[in-house]
Amino acid sequence: MNFTREKKVLIVGLGLLGGSYAMALTRKDYSVRAIAHRQETIDFALQRGIIEKGTTEVTKEFVEWADIIVFGLYPHIFKEWIKKYQSYFKSGAIITDVTGIKGNFVREIQGMLRADVEYIPAHPMCGKEVSGVENADDKIFAGANYLVTPTEKNSKEAIEICRDLGWILGCYRVVEIDIDKHDEVIGFVSQLTHCIAITLMTCNEEEHLEKFTGDSFRDLTRIARINEIMWSELFIDNKQALIKQMKEFSAQFNKIEELIENEDAEGLKEIMRRSTERRKLFDK
Amino acid sequence: MNFTREKKVLIVGLGLLGGSYAMALTRKDYSVRAIAHRQETIDFALQRGIIEKGTTEVTKEFVEWADIIVFGLYPHIFKEWIKKYQSYFKSGAIITDVTGIKGNFVREIQGMLRADVEYIPAHPMCGKEVSGVENADDKIFAGANYLVTPTEKNSKEAIEICRDLGWILGCYRVVEIDIDKHDEVIGFVSQLTHCIAITLMTCNEEEHLEKFTGDSFRDLTRIARINEIMWSELFIDNKQALIKQMKEFSAQFNKIEELIENEDAEGLKEIMRRSTERRKLFDK
After folding, report:
1. I need a labelling partner for B200 at 20 to 30 A (CA). Which of A31, B50, B76, B109 fits?
2. Closest residue of chain A to B258, computed from CA coordinates
3. Is the ipTM of this complex over 0.90?
């Protein structure tokens, strides 16, 4: 384990994910401090004992204390923060984040970052339909995949530390994945599913659907309760990959519609058998 | 309660749902017998004590014993059964079913049925991704909606008995709904969701998706493990309503794609806010 207990951790942005990181790290006896936008956030985190110290003011003293800095901010705020405050980092600091998309965004930050500080991008595949430190919960990591997306700029040591962080959080699996491939896969498994959920929740004006629904509809729309500020930004930042996935989805959806239109039971059964086979892999 | 314990219940077709009905009714001290296709099904149900008697042979004696007959068969087999054996029913018998679509199908059966026997259509909004009496479980009714779809041919008494059945099973809510409206709503909340799930599971050739997925993808594809014989039949039988729903879904999905293409964050946020508002109703 390269991520030893001597490493001091600063969380910047103490929302649902940042708060959950703080909780997991504190539970495992790491020193965790935080910078947040609102004083109530800090007060709540202190009261719950998930950070040892916190502030709403970004000062050199507070930032240079940390060996590892985890950013839990919206992508565009993360970028602005780096521009404004990167001179405060301790030389040799390692920064990482929880941002669900990578690609261009990571290259921009790595491109502007000081040479003596390293940014290793990563994020856990988990979350909740609610936000804020009040809803933080380190149980969200149980069963979750933790994705690390190094670029050619990353050192072996930073990758190791970042992988360790995934295990410390309590994730089920730590996976390294090529950064462009990552955005494609995320466009599919995460963003496309959110697009589908919000479509389903808004394409029909029927009132009181809750009286008629079964678990299927409830499951498919759980994520239709969505943080619109974050997700609209993520969708647009990963536009190219997401639209490619949406088009592939539509093509297959139209094919199924055609089979129903033509009452082609055999064609439908074939797709359903393939669907069943592929889905079984998830229940192993 | 019109569905008193004196009423004798025959289940025809002892699969996942038929078996779960048997379990719930037996637990509440009703006399339950069953007709199934395979002897192993009967043996299993007898051994588990969820029926008092069972047979694979359809005889007049066995059928005329029952006051209430519940059909848990595929739609086309249900129709064939009625044609072939309806002379066996006791005069005054009430029959009902678990079929997820109604409309034309119900009218066909009511049209051919003896005048002294009444068919009151209904079904619970629940199920599992697995089939067969071995997977029967009367806990599936907890939290489920039970839908009754009477036609002009139904008597007040039969409707009452059928509603009682929903409560006896342990359903959370018993809802009466117009039969044509029913197929439209089911096309939306149940069939469209299954179409989406199988599309999502088959539109991408990526291997080992399970390494990258979070709960969103898992939730949206839970029902992608699907009984292809039953669902291809249900889709085609409810073709008109389902295709209408698929087209509405596609229109909204395309609209969201366009907003992303145009980087229209405000337009996306507006849809997401509506989605969040509508979804909240389900968590009450």
Report:
1. B76
2. A243
3. no
